[in-house]
Target: DNA alkylation repair enzyme
Amino acid sequence: MRTATDVVDELRRHADQREHAKTTRRMVGVPLSVVGVRMGTVFAVAKEHRALPLPEVAALLERDEYESRMVGVSVLDFRARAPRLDDDGRQALYDVWMDHLDRMVAWDLVDRSAPRVVGLHLRSRSRDPLFTLAASPDVMHRRAAVVASFALIRERDLDDPLAICGLLAGDRDPLVQSPIGTALREVGRVDAARRDAFLATHAAVISAAARRVARGSGEASVAGVDAFPTFPPVTRHTITFDDVMARRDD
Model:
């Protein structure tokens, strides 16, 4: 049986100084160490180990190397894509992800896994977990609430994604505004009138960048591509828990 240690050893065999320098530059401010492995190789390692037992996936998520955690979330994502995955299987993936929520400290760890692992699991369940994430003081939790909702929008289920975007429309952190823009763009592909009404209602608080993305049409749709979109790291700001809860209660 393969283990998390086998994965880490394989990643280290692929380590490259140039990749280490490149990844380190874009990981400024992220509390993780870097092995220095090309991202395509990281995904290939994850695909090769997609049958890794879930306790071993959890062990990868508990490590402090960026690439180890990326393999962990990618394994969860690959498993969540299985068309015949039953409810118990989805629950197990979701539980591992949520148990390691606070290990999702980089934007791409969230984007790689939240739509399928979290969003697909909640398609026929209460969306309360997404609203709890949206009310979190942690920016990555708030981002996860929006990004996970991409899977709902893909199913033409718009009410909760729009409610989450409304809750966070005034969030000053670009790490939240960026996926809000994408969520609204995808809502517009399903129901342009609802997107436009949302933008009109929240015009005073939503960022100009999010509005531009929301009205864009040239980018790939989450409904028509295999991979959900991801976004580059940007400067962070903060929003308080009380601010978010006050908007939720309005």
